[in-house]
Amino acid sequence: MFIFPQDLYCDVRIERKFSTSISFLKEKLENFVERATEGAFIRIFDGNMWYYSATTSILDIQKEIDSLSHLCSSNSFILENSTVKKFQVNKEKVDKFIDNDVRKISSDKKMNLVKCYINLFSLRPYIKMWNAHYEENHTTMEFYSSSGSDLTWTNQSCGLRYSFNLAENDKKFNDSYSFGANCFTELENLEGEISKYIDEAYDFMKNAKDIKPGKYCVILSPLAAGIFAHESFGHKSESDFMIGDEKMKKEWAIGKKVGSSILSIVDDGQEMGVGYTPYDDEGSFSEKTYLIKDGILSGRLHSVLTASKLEENPTGNARAISFMYEPIVRMTTTYIDKGDKTKEQLFSEVKEGIFIDTIKHGSGLSTFTLAPSRAYYMKDGKIEYPVNVAVITGTVFETLNRIDGLSDKVKLLSFVGGGCGKMEQAPLPVGFGGPFVRVSQMDVM
Amino acid sequence: MIREKFKMENTSFTVNITNSKVDSFRKSEIKKTGIRLYNEGDIGVAGYIGDLGEEIAEKNAVKSLMNKISYPCESASNINKKVEIGEFPIKPDNIIEEVEEVLKELNKFGSDFIFSNKASLIEDKIHLSNNSNTKMDFTSKYMSFGLLYKTKESVSLFDGFFGFMSHKYNRKEWLDYSQKFLEWHRNLLKVKLEKKMPVIFLEPGTTLSKFNLELSGRKYSTQTSIFSKKQGDKLFNEKFNLINNRESNDNYLSYFDAEGTILNNNKFYFIKDGIFKAPSSDKQLAKEFGYELTGSAVSAYDTVPVLGRSNLDVEITHNNLEDMLKGQKAIVVLMASGGDFTTEGSFGTPVQLSFLYENGKILGRLPELQLNSNIYKMFGDDFKGSVKNSLTPFSDYNIIAMDMEINQS
Q: Which residues does residue B340 pair with via DSSP β-bridges, in sequence order?
């Protein structure tokens, strides 16, 4: 298809994307956008440096390859390069969405879906303002390399987000309901779930009390647990941070105990949801990777480059947010694995603590933070009342070792209208989740 | 029918640094164009990326009018203005060599550190024109150089960050600052801080985020903002002036918003002398509720303009830091990730990296700490002021300071 330059490694990623975005401000249609775009990202490696080009001119890819190759130094041993040798040569076409392609669904049907839930907001007098948003993306990716890869895969996601502002007397609260999926039909019949979510937000607004800052036993919901896993440990498993760093290599030696013995954390690009990534953006098959298994460091996330530098294997985690960027090591769907307690048992064992139900955002370095949207004070195994919490925070490894209980069912979650940020690339769709996770002590601010 | 073209172009040359070495170079040229049609109170929009597609986009914009998206507002008219800000301080052809030279020196005086991240030359162009005699162009060119760093003994992903975004650049000045910065980092101070003391935010964004949410005219008009019904009330310190700053020389942002609104003197006062003056608005809100236009409309190249975030800035209150702090010690916050406000306005954040400042000098690095306050205290009695940033090189930004509760765990 392309004439690749001699004595250099080269790959081309072509992205063809169809997206629809519908927004309502209360009952008023605010935006309706159908967008078909295409672009390409070209990479050339001479054994020393990588040279990249992002272009919207698909017809000029060959010209771009030729132009970029002039910046490189010819290397007759390029095929012996340890990084080039690590590239997988895959030839496959993967499309799980032929029978439920969102592009085949009429615009009217999409519009009606957004509208059908609007009454849930408009009929509640304490909801003063809301936005409704539908978003879908259908992406076909082609990947060709000088090593012989010839791949085409399709990805698809769609979802709804309702942001709403509540007010009654002097009380005010903002919340948003978001649900992402791979198929349009999954977005239907959500009335019960959305109603329950709104009622909980209303109860929170009416009854939330200020929390006395301090150290508490904390139970994380599957959503909070998933974000915690992503922020506290997932980013540390992205092995680009270890390249050339001897201290980190020692610190992050496979086999080291890093958490409670009941804790396992997984990243899996084959899980359906917005983190679904059949192949990554440099043509590697996406693996299921145990980052922690039974408290022991078991694996890490790799691109081809990081795998070659650390003498491990690619895991299919080289991802880019679009054709405008190079792939870097990212998560896909990351979750804490299930434990052996029922949810009821897990809660009943708490003498005093905080239950973190929903989250606004999180971040994680050596300490992590989670900013709860809705949190609840617990006493003697029962939820007593909602509490206002700015952030919960802790040292990552201390917290991982303080996990003392996991419920026995994992819930995986997908959302629209956000994602993961790393360096200049945000937002990248990722999935996350877990069971209910109990931590014996966390700082609550 | 008014026909309008809204075009965004971004050209960049980026060098990536991994493990203190240049490992890749990327060039990118992305053009995105939207066609907007205004007809009888409705708007139709469609777009394309690249050079080709205007004809199809025009047809799609006509089709989009059938969606009956109401937009009962005037488009920009009778404006002809072109603003060009900045220059590339080095040639794109030389950026790899320049970054390599910087790294060569950094790796000498900072041999105990590992550096990563990116240096870029960036050109942004925004164009808005229509058949109502309007043609607005904005071009900004600047360099950004950001370095994540960690000591070779550290087990963190990174220990800190320093950098700049400017059209000014001088290698020696940059290296001198880098050397000083690393020296400050090395000098970990063991001091007992006061329970409440001045805190300087080099990037005030975290502390101003609550304003962007609560100043929204949408929230204000539906009584769900904490500022609802408080227009004209003195809520904050009389020194506190909060503006939407569209002065391109200050921040490399376009002088017009997505609807083509240009502000008087390129700024709008949301809060003046501590008094809440007005919520943020776009043309639709202004028409519906009689609000003043605040230059806060945003859009993608192919979407209808809506109310978005303003570029909030705090006006300068003092000539310099010393004038503002009057000899008091202060915490300089470099990295505070993960903090937030509660609905009512309480604020809490961990601070991952901060330095101690006293008598015109930075003394060294502080251990991780936590800050707590409340929006009405931070910008009320506890507000110290705002000054031009004199602590980092090539900076055109304002920095702010306020007294906050300090928690050293």
A: B348
Structure tokens at A342: 């029922």
- The answer to whether residues B243 and B115 belong to one domain is no
Cβ distance of A393 and B24 shorter than 8 Å: no
Mean pLDDT of A317-331: 98
Strands (DSSP E) contained in B315-352 are 330-335, 340-341, 346-351
Q: What is the pLDDT of residue B219?
A: 94
CA distance B323 to chain A (A): 33
Q: Which of A224, A211, A266, A277 is nearest to A413 (CA)?
A: A224
User: What pLDDT does residue A364 have?
Assistant: 79
CA distance A308 to A83: 5
- Are B237 and B101 found together in one domain? no
Q: Are B271 and B385 found together in one domain?
A: no
Q: Which of A21, A29, A247 sits opposite B155 (nearest CB)?
A: A247
Over residues A69-76, the mean pLDDT reads 96
Confidence of residue B344 (pLDDT cuts 50, 70, 90): confident
Interface of B with A in 358-397 (CB under 8 A): 368, 370, 372
- Nearest chain B CA: its distance from A328 CA (Å): 12
CA angle B400, B244, B79 (to 5 degrees): 145
Residue corresponding to tokens 């019904």: B229
Give the 3-state secondary structure of residue B97: helix
Residues B61 and B148 in one domain: yes
The answer on B169 and B34 residing in a single domain is: yes
B120: in domain: yes
How does pLDDT run across A366-420, given as a tens digit for each residue? 788 899 999 999 999 999 999 999 889 888 999 999 999 999 999 999 999 889 9
Using the Cβ of B28 and the Cβ atoms of chain A, whether some distance falls under 8 Å is answered with yes
ipTM over 0.90: yes
pLDDT at residue A126 above 90?
A: yes
Q: Is B160's Cβ below 8 Å from some Cβ in A?
A: no
- Whether A172 sits inside 8 A of B226 (CB atoms) is yes
Torsion over CA of A165, A169, A171 and A173, rounded to 10 degrees?
-10
- Domain-embedded: residue B156: yes
| Residue B191 covered by a domain | no
Same domain, B158 and B37: yes
Q: Which of B291, B314, B337 is the last residue of a domain?
A: B314
B contacts of A56 (beta carbons < 8 Å)? 29-31, 49-51
CB B355 within 8 A of CB B369: no
Domain count within chain B: 3
Report chain A's C-alpha Rg in angstroms.
23
Last residue of a domain, one of B314, B336, B355: B314
Helix axes B95-109, B171-186, angle to 10 degrees: 30
Q: What is the pLDDT at residue B339?
A: 85
Question: Is B371 within a domain?
Answer: yes
Task: List A residues 232-291 in contact with B (Cβ-Cβ < 8 A).
Answer: 235-236, 240-241, 243-248, 251
Taking residues A120-124, what's their average pLDDT?
96
Host domain of residue B366: 196-206+316-407
From chain B, the residues in CB contact with A324 under 8 A are 28, 30
Q: Is the pLDDT of residue B409 over 80?
A: no
pLDDT digit string (tens) for B237-260?
A: 999 999 999 998 888 899 999 999
- Per DSSP, the three-state class of B313 is strand
pLDDT beyond 90 at B303: yes
What would the two tokens of residue B142 be?
A: 């600047």
Structural domain boundaries in chain A: 9-207, 210-444
- Fold of the domain built from segment(s) A9-207: PmbA/TldD fold (3.30.2290)
At residue A417, the pLDDT reads 83
Averaged over A244-268, what is the pLDDT?
A: 94
Is B356 found in the same domain as B246?
A: no
Residue of A52, A364, A445 with shortest CB distance to B348:
A445
Of residues B18, B218, B368, nearest to A129 (C-beta): B218
Residues 165-224 of B with CB under 8 A from A: 213, 218-219, 222-224
Check pLDDT > 80 for residue A365: no
